[in-house]
Amino acid sequence: LPPLFLLLTALELSWSLSDEEKKIILDGHNKYRSGVSPPAMDMLKMSWDTELEAFAQAYAEKCIWDHNKERGRRGENLFAMAPTLDLEFAVEDWNGEEKYYNLTTSTCVPGQMCGHYTQVVWASTHQIGCGAKFCEKIDGIETEEMYLLVCNYYPPGNMKGRKPYKEGPSCSQCPEGRVCVNSLCEVEVDTGYPVSSLTTEDPALLESSALDTEELETNSDQTNMDQPTAGAPNTFLGPSLFLLPSVILVGLLL
Ligand SMILES: *[C@@H]1O[C@H](CO)[C@@H](O)[C@H](O)[C@H]1NC(C)=O
């Protein structure tokens, strides 16, 4: 057997996100969080969490187009795409639901999805970890050979009856131990304390643990899919995906 074939097979089996790809996802989230309009008083900067990453990767490997029922107290956004996986576009697509969301009334335009967006900009969510997998077949999607992206978040967003963030002057309500950088409340690094001790004292965490018994909104079960229209499976479709009717997505609402 040609060694190249074996190498490719091995790569495909062990494929997961590279450091560069993780950075694209994390930076994308922080970019949108930093730029929310109206501005946020309490928007925490997100950081990458390797445990969430491992959790998301393990679930992505299963190639299922449905939320992980074992996700516990973790938020989750899904995304599927072919023939390539454009991570910047995935985050942009989630955030793009912003246009359907009214922060004043905390409502979404009927028939649209907003839960991906509200998770992306959920102020108290400060950890993210994602995994991706090239799937020959995703259970729940007709199209074959698609990439599946799974992002898990902690603490989870989309708490019933809650707004994603508090509207007001940027950073005016950052939790203690955080400083304002680019309109985001960032963990102070030069305190001499280990980061973990800051994290356990994070008021946002305490607040969210008080929400333990609250149910996640039904529309927190968010899945999103972009796929090429028939006929050009090997062409990179890029920006044209923006024009895809949301009918495709609605059909996949769970
Ligand atoms: C949100 O809803 C309120 C109340 O219905 C309305 O006055 C406001 O214009 C809406 N905002 C946006 C951005 O649509």
From TrEMBL:
UniProt domain SCP: residue ranges: 20-161
Location in the cell: Secreted
Entry coiled-coil feature ranges: none
Gene3D superfamilies: CAP (3.40.33.10)
Signal sequence, renumbered to the chain: 1-16
Keyword list, A-Z: Glycoprotein, Protease inhibitor, Secreted, Signal
Biological function: May inhibit cardiomyocyte growth.
Family: Belongs to the CRISP family.
Quaternary organization: Interacts with PSP94/MSMB.
Name used for this protein in its record: Peptidase inhibitor 16
Organism: Nyctibius grandis (Great potoo)
